[in-house]
Amino acid sequence: MLSEVTLDDIRPIAIGAGILGTGGGGNPYLGSLHLESIMREKGSQPLIDPLTMDDDALVCVAGNIGAPTVSIEKLPEGTEMYRAFRLLEQHINRKFDAIVIAEIGGANSMQPLIAGLQAGIPVVDSDSMGRAFPEIQMSSFLFGTDATVTPFAMVDAADNAAVIPTAISDVWSEKIARNIAVSMGARAGLVSTIMTGAQVKEAGIHYTMTLAHHLGQQVIEAQQQKSDVPTVVADTLDGNVLFRGKITDVNRRTTKGFARGGVRMESFAGNDILEIEFQNEFLIAKINDEIAVTTPDLICIVTEDEGEPVTTEVLRYGTRVAVIAVPAPEQLKTTAALNVVGPKAFGYDVEFNPLSGGRIGYLPN
Amino acid sequence: MLSEVTLDDIRPIAIGAGILGTGGGGNPYLGSLHLESIMREKGSQPLIDPLTMDDDALVCVAGNIGAPTVSIEKLPEGTEMYRAFRLLEQHINRKFDAIVIAEIGGANSMQPLIAGLQAGIPVVDSDSMGRAFPEIQMSSFLFGTDATVTPFAMVDAADNAAVIPTAISDVWSEKIARNIAVSMGARAGLVSTIMTGAQVKEAGIHYTMTLAHHLGQQVIEAQQQKSDVPTVVADTLDGNVLFRGKITDVNRRTTKGFARGGVRMESFAGNDILEIEFQNEFLIAKINDEIAVTTPDLICIVTEDEGEPVTTEVLRYGTRVAVIAVPAPEQLKTTAALNVVGPKAFGYDVEFNPLSGGRIGYLPN
Predict the structure, then answer these.
(1) Domain A4-206 belongs to what architecture?
(2) Left if phi > 0, otherwise alpha if psi is -120 to 50, otherwise beta: which for B164?
(3) ipTM reported for the complex, 2 dp
(4) Mind telling me how many Å the CA of A94 is from chain B's nearest CA?
């Protein structure tokens, strides 16, 4: 695994995490500019191995909450997540030993590194999704351990801050956090889900920062070698290239703290239609009205020529893209997990029909 | 002034505070049932005199937040405000000496007494409105001192709780609190605005619990004597009976944490129309399309026969009512106050044209 994240690692991580973000997790380009500026000041960020970390370590989970459409218009102040981290420490009157990444997808892979640099503590190479999901209860730490979202802290770009000491359930934590995020302009840093090292070991999707980095490196190499980049992405993730075509329609609205809508594309020959519906992340893909992939399996859109991630907020008419289907990590496919992240959890009356395979979260070769 | 609130005082306070609530503040009948059940268990609740209290006393302001339409459907668990009080104490790591009433109107006059009984501390006979207002920045403690709404705590009927340590401004505190209240089912206990006794002295609208009690006593006596109760209400408050008639239309919707809409009535002779617009509270009254009264002056609706308060959530077709206009207390009519509670603060392009007089907040004879 990567032992630290240096300046040179930012670009591959931005590409890899952008692809793993399945449309969401925040704009990876803006995230990488921000990480770069902090890293030039503070140096590289150490990572720690989730499988050898101290069982008694006290950790928290960090991510941004909001709509990715907003993330490209309302830029961060830069210390949101760090201030939420300190606020939660103050609330529990204890110090955290390390930060765990809420979701490896998009800029949410990079913001916890920034918070770690600002706090002077390491980040664990593990996350709770192996991708991105729109809601905070959608976390392997929650359906895989007895951890809860509460207490959690949120801070925005200005002086607005909130601590939620208790909530009825993790789903209620999401409802409350989402409404607070709306008050905060649909973008806030959120630090939650206090755990021990042992809990991270048990339920994390491990080495996903290393995977994002590796995936990005493969993309960059394939670009340089003029290889077919979508195929390289699919092979690296044990997935397959589902579709190649041109975006012909985008229906996207920012509502109640999410970007919701759908995207439609036509194959280059013009005889096939692929449609994807999203709530921040791409959730369900249909080819010619037949369901092809559903959450929690990953639906990743990349540019057809360069294999660069195409996230929800930059979808637009005319872009030539490839859609890659990737089997979800096993932790997301248990019954408990599917209740939270399967198609029914998003209101689709569809059974989850898993793609075969699935190795995200395992150390790449 | 009243030195304590006993079981016998509940009915007069419910009537008086119901009238002073100008439609809002929560249903006074339900509030009084709740106060009665707690008082049967814990005894009477001591009040303290705002003008002789210790300047260094540490106090907080307590009220419910939400839509009055919800308050009659979603009953309280009973300790919401008390738990918010304890949560705020825990957050600042200090104990409060007394509770101050956010708004004397409606059930919000009684809930702080309940919290005081549960916490075993006195309640100050002073509030920040002399009536009810829909939003938390609408407080004489805020436009009259350098106190801020933050830090504040909110708790709902279940286990949802929130602490807001900081916010950009009091208006932002309202936005955040309102969205949290929506997550909490449009009803939550809110404890905020930490102050010293000196600040209460300086900016409070004093003796309004005593006034509510006195007003209720006058109403009960007038009912017994078969006097014209609306006239007695108007005389007690130095106001005037603006209109008598029958409600002919109610347009009321519960939206974004408020009850909003309007009520229309016809005079008994049928030749005059009075219309009132509300956001929880009655804000502006027009007679035959001419503006007659605007916030912060009080627009109170009572039943025409008995002079009982008619609050926003119980307005209905056919009720025979009297509308009483009452000059606002002076603290609400300064330039600073009118920026927050005048008609323009509610989006009406109308100047405030004050009714003459105004003694609410002064000790009744």
Answers:
(1) 3-Layer(aba) Sandwich (3.40)
(2) beta
(3) 0.83
(4) 14
